[in-house]
């Protein structure tokens, strides 16, 4: 088992990345706001709901990022806890827009969060002139206050209108999509590199429609920070997980890491290095209505580029020479 370090006071903040925490916030805030409407404090929820109505489309129109939030000092503590770093292999020109594949999903996507949603690892200095946006589930932006928090970090909706907007308004935009999606979370166990990618081609079609360059990335260590309990597909627990996903959009994963006391088990992640390697951009032509053959062609080129990126760096970041990427 990975080596445990004595956790610090800030580590509970990492649980804010857990989708279930957003769900809990939703069920707490919804009745609270309704209750406040019938008290002397009714102007507060009334004004917020009015603001929410007027601001409803903002997550699909570029969002509302905050340099102040992205530079909170807590992000540097989270960075140092693992630690988390980013490696640039090629420059990204601000004259183009980019669609970035984020692999693997992992359980909580710590690497992508810290590298692209904060300035803890110095993204703006590493890629000057590039504005990163990490796409996540659309319904998160329907939760009061959570939507403000996500937009402040530069997170956008994974909906087609939101991505189309970013790739068609100006240049220098980098939209990151966790291509494997929530289904890949169930593949997140230590010492594995399994990606759900074979049939995921929508991001390639979108890139072709906008002439955006495809950027492969791979985050080494993402699947090493938690152990996960896997269930057989015929088990009741697996059926519950599938039902949960149909309702809420993500899996109810059973995982564990370390606790607050040395040697104990809990929900804190193991202190394992996480490194996001950003590969060389793959230029694509702009085709308003790309054929399936064209989509298949660039999808194959993307997989090949991702495969080469992984093989080139795997031994440097803890994978054995024999480790292979598995595509589902």
TrEMBL record:
GO terms for molecular function: long-chain-alcohol O-fatty-acyltransferase activity. This is Acyltransferase. Signal peptide: none annotated. Its main location: endoplasmic reticulum. Belongs to the diacylglycerol acyltransferase family. It is found in: Endoplasmic reticulum membrane. Pfam families: DAGAT. It is a multi-pass membrane protein.
């Amino acid at each position: 088992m990975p080596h445990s370090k004595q956790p610090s006071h800030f580590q509970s903040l990492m649980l804010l990345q857990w989708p279930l925490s957003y769900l809990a916030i939703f069920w707490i805030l919804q009745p609270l706001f309704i209750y406040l409407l019938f008290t002397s404090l009714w102007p507060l929820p009334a004004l917020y709901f009015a603001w929410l109505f007027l601001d409803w489309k903002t997550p699909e129109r570029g969002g509302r990022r905050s340099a102040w939030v992205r530079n909170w000092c807590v992000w540097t503590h989270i960075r140092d806890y693992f630690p988390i770093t980013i490696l640039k292999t090629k420059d990204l020109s601000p004259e183009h827009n980019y669609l970035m594949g984020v692999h693997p999903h992992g359980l909580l996507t710590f690497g992508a969060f810290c590298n692209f949603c904060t300035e803890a690892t110095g993204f703006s200095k590493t890629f000057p002139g590039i504005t990163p946006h990490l796409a996540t589930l659309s319904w998160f932006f329907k939760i009061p206050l959570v939507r403000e928090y996500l937009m402040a970090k530069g997170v956008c909706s994974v909906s087609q209108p939101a991505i189309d907007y970013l790739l068609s308004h100006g240049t220098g935009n980098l939209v990151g999509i966790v291509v494997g999606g929530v289904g890949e979370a169930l593949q997140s166990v230590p010492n594995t590199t399994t990606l759900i990618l074979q049939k995921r081609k929508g991001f390639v079609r979108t890139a072709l429609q906008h002439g955006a360059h495809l950027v492969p990335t791979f985050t080494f260590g993402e699947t090493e920070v938690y152990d996960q309990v896997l269930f057989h597909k015929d088990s009741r627990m697996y059926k519950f997980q599938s039902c949960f996903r149909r309702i809420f959009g993500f899996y109810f994963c059973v995982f564990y890491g370390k606790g607050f006391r040395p040697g104990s088990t809990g929900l804190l992640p193991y202190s394992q290095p996480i490194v996001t390697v950003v590969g060389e951009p793959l230029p694509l032509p702009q085709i308003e209505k790309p054929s399936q053959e064209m989509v298949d062609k660039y999808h194959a080129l993307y997989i090949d580029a991702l495969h080469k990126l992984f093989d080139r760096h795997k031994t440097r970041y803890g994978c054995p020479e024999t480790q292979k990427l598995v595509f589902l």
